[in-house]
Amino acid sequence: MPTDGRGPVDRTSMTLTALAEHEDKAAALLPAEVYDYFAAGAGAETTLHESRTAWEHYRVRPRVLRDVGRVDLPTSLLGAEVSSPVVLAPTAFQGLAHAEGERATARAAAATGSLLALSTRSSTPLEEVAAAGSAPWWFQVYAMRDRDLTLRLVERAVSAGARALVLTGDTPYVGIKRRVTGTRIAIPDDHFLVNLQQHLDPGRADARRAAEQDPTITLEAISWLAEASGLPVLVKGVLRGDEAVACLDAGAAGVVVSNHGGRQLDRAVPSAIALPEVVDAVAGRAPVLVDGGIRSGLDCLVALALGASAVMVGRPVVWGLAAGGEAGVVEALEALRADLTHVMALTGAASLADLDRSLVTATSIWSPL
Ligand SMILES: Cc1cc2nc3c(=O)[nH]c(=O)nc-3n(C[C@H](O)[C@H](O)[C@H](O)COP(=O)(O)O)c2cc1C
Ligand SMILES: CCCCCCC(=O)C(=O)O
């Protein structure tokens, strides 16, 4: 059994069955419409499905006879020191998953030394989330129709200690999910507007509309947010090399390769397939993170070997939270850490620096036009 910086990594006691069990438990515990809100993908859920399976189209080319008695996962992301390259993706309305919502998630991030990305649409005021855990955190920004509201929120995130902004670029309108649309879930105002209440005049009739994502924002929003906040801005939702370069040229400090966990444009390319193109185009200018369907150490290993600086996980955190609050999120993050440590050892990699593209090969079903 390999050790990491904290001691032996006993994979047998923390297997990935934890992740599957969490989802089963969440499905049993949550009202069906809440479970469906978290689980759903857009359209026919083709991209939701492929987000996961696309990672399996890569095969590993391990090195042999390397010293893997100790495997190290700590890394640094835009100046934040973290214990592993697994980052908590921004996911909205965690108060629907567990009464402690984002507070429990923040404590779990702190307990595991992980970086947390907090959603604009958190169910808990951002200051309370920041106070709940000592982990470094980034604030995910939905630029809202009311730009002033957006700025007020960003200013509060800066004051509360956010280390970077993550501007989501793939959600001019919320993707249509067949499981959710119609009579299913309508997010109540006490979740949707929780971060905004203090800025809204009581009884403001157009509050929901003002808080909607602004579909007219352009690349200029990157420098607008960077100048207003003094923070680095990453753009999330990038699936093409040329778009990544355009974001960096417009002032982005990094990009997140993402199709929003299959929740926005159905039949969007899986992140696993888009990642190498983006990494090549970015050419080391800035960190490239990736998310979508990452459920195992092998998925993490493939992403890191393809050139990602870190991976983000969305639903595994939500299911852990629903299943067990803070302890459930810790369990999910530790399961991924233990599994990544194990597969790195079997690949002959003792540190993240040992992960490079020579370690993976693509099977052929995804080919360029
Ligand atoms: C329930 C749910 C809510 C989400 N809310 C947000 C959000 O508020 N902002 C955002 O940028 N992305 C949001 N995402 C997308 C995640 O940040 C991430 O891209 C996605 O979940 C990764 O895929 P995975 O769930 O397969 O790990 C959400 C995803 C889910 C499942
Ligand atoms: C019902 C409003 C959803 C806001 C966006 C949250 C999100 O990004 C997601 O659900 O996905």
Strand-helix topology:
Layout: E1 3-4, E2 7-8, H1 17-29, H2 32-39, H3 46-53, E3 58-60, E4 75-77, E5 80-82, E6 86-88, H4 101-112, E7 116-118, H5 126-132, E8 137-141, H6 147-159, E9 165-168, H7 189-192, H8 207-211, H9 220-229, E10 233-238, H10 241-249, E11 254-257, H11 271-282, E12 288-291, H12 297-305, E13 310-313, H13 315-347, E14 360-362
Parallel strand pairs: 6-13, 7-8, 8-9, 9-10, 10-11, 11-12, 12-13
Antiparallel strand pairs: 1-2, 3-14, 4-5
Bound molecules: flavin mononucleotide and the ligand CCCCCCC(=O)C(=O)O.
Question: Care to describe what's here?
Answer:
Belongs to the FMN-dependent alpha-hydroxy acid dehydrogenase family. Pfam families: FMN_dh (PF01070). Glyoxylate binds at residues 37, 142, 260, 263. Its cofactor is FMN. FMN binds at residues 90-92, 119, 140, 168, 236, 258, 291-295, 314-315. The chain is 39% helix and 13% strand. It has 369 residues and is an alpha/beta fold. It has a single domain, classed as TIM Barrel, CATH 3.20.20.70. Strands 6-13-12-11-10-9-8-7 form an eight-stranded parallel β-sheet. The protein is globular, with a radius of gyration of 19 Å. The ligand CCCCCCC(=O)C(=O)O binds at residues 92, 121, 171, 174, 187, 260, 263. Flavin mononucleotide binds next to helix 13.
